[in-house]
Give the backbone structure.
Amino acid sequence: MPREFQFQVSPEVAAQEVLLKQHVAKLFQVSPQDIQKVNVVKRSVDARQKSIKINIKAIVYLVGEEYHETTIGIPEYPNVENAQEVIVVGAGPAGLFAALQLIEKGLKPIVLERGKDVRGRRRDLKAINRDHVVNPESNYCFGEGGAGTYSDGKLYTRSKKRGDVDRILQLLVAYGASSEILVEAHPHIGTNKLPQIIQDIREKIIEHGGKVLFETKVTDILIKNNEVKGIVTQYGNTILAPNIILATGHSARDIFELLYQKGIEIEAKPFALGVRAEHPQSLIDSIQYSCDFRGQYLPPAPYSVVKQVNGRGMYSFCMCPGGVIAPCATAEGEVVTNGWSPSKRDQATANSGIVVELRLEDFKPFAKFGPLAGMEFQKDIEQRAWRLAGQTQKVPAQRMVDFSQRKTSAEIPKTSYVPGTTSIELGEVFPGFLTQTMRQGFQEFGKSMKGYFTNEAILHAPESRTSSPVRISRDPQTLEHIQIKGLYPCGEGAGYAGGIISAAIDGEKCALKIAENLKK
């Protein structure tokens, strides 16, 4: 009878199947030849002690016990070419997984994406990095796959209550992701591998009768008697359908403005804002692993840190080991940072958003904008940073200790942020309460992580798109908008998700609710 075991081994043993079998054989008090298979189901790094261990949960099969290699296949989808149509606005994780779920339930998704397909986006990303030109419809945030495609592909979520995390991970494996994402405690695909996965999902949607329309921007939502009737595109075309999944992401400000202008209820939502801090990866390794060199069997070290500073939470966000900082503006006249890592996480630097929680009262200077006050607060900082850094895609930057000591850095070394940096005292970028919290907070971080508070670390400003500044009101049971029948606010942009997995889950949930309603 196969048995499940949990145990710890050295990184070297965990990385080599032969050594792992030998270790398990000792636990079982049998010969290694008697071990047919050590099937690792969960793996994580335990770096709390000086001697670093790998936690492993595995199912052990002895010789003679039945073992079959598990293969994860793509579901058998019906052809929905002539089925009831559902409009899906946005081809990020919420929109794409909603579309797949609609097809599973026999409905035809029409996916509208304002940006380009996943390959076409690359030219526009190069233009941001090389020429400082921002295409407001095709950038790191807009385009096939959404912000996640070219922003790392982290799959970790604390939101287990939101839905079936394993189902989303298994679907990603079915579409080409490594099965390692089912095992690792903090799964990650990598920006270099995500485009093909996203393309394969899109092709499957089309193959089974769905539609995917790129460079198609929604400029109006047609509503009659508080029921959706369809949408209007930037070309003046009308697409009619009685159900719309609105999965536009956290940066689609024009959609928030459209809803507000039409009197469709939305509300300001707290979010977090700060900087993106970059350290040498070797320094983070030495802090986290308490060693001079991590060796070949340990992954580049991540970190997670949370502090209460001046009564506010200040914490790391979207930490990227062995990664780079990317320019994520969605319009001219603003600068925005984010981070990503390739699948091997083999870059020389580590970066993380370091952000401070905001409250609704922080948006009072923008109260005239009503529920868009948080969005205008966000825009004001991004635009100020753009002006201070030279009105290109360069960002304001400062060494960490210099920032805490209110000193403009004499020089900024080259960082992973390709458009470049301008040395600025970052207190000029942020409101006083934010600056004060961050100055003190970095010193507090240094007390928890010895060596973290250093002038080797370069702060890039701002990290401002952590989550949506708006929540689009919906009924918690039906998931429909509280006013508008047939409108399903969905994912990060609507304020109901916080990352690839939770957004994908929310997309599926909205699709299922539509399927349920249509059967009534």
